[in-house]
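Appendix B. Chain record.
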Amino acid sequence: MYIITEAPMIRAIPKKLKSLKEGKIRLKACLQTGDVVNRNKRRYSKSLIESGVANVNSRVHEGSLLGELDHPVANGNGSVVRQVTVLFKEASHKFCEIGWEGNKLVSVMETLRTPNGEILKNLAEDGIPVGFSFRGMGDLKQVMENGNTFFEVRPPLHVVTWDAVSYPSHDGANLIEITENVTKMVYESVGVCDMGGLVCTAEGHCYFPNDFDRLVEKRIIRLTEKFK
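Structure tokens predicted for this chain:
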């Protein structure tokens, strides 16, 4: 199981921005592209992304799926837990709707009344390139097709969020427009476990509790490894 953050690579100028009450804006953007090798040499199948989104849809409807301004920087101590956590103090936007347009995963988002939310709003209104980039956990398998080597992201895919970044890793990740359409979103609690909400084995592999239990049931992991 690998922590995956898509390093930013492209940019685009936001267009058609519209303001909401209380100094917030609503925006529509492409979060991710399915079945395409991105600029970080990773490919996510559309079905894999769909499975990841299905696990956070309840949070979207409840209004609690948040994203940060930039990916968190790994600093060694506690970096694993940090990478799979969205901090309130760093949050800049929430996801109102997530759906598909062809092979592009598109979302309607709203900026928050936080310091980072205000920064994101101002950047977009000032015409600064804004994009969104995936953060989560999944397995990677090296693949060679037509002489090109890349990594296929394999299940299970755990969506942490899509952070606002200056250079997303996939084409089309730019801000498409700002809309006044309003909807609700979601919250999903992750149970406390051995390491900051994760179950970690002696080999250094970390899992969310529910997925660890499913793997144990399938005999992929021996239960005794949980407490080594």
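Further analysis of this model is presented in Appendix C.
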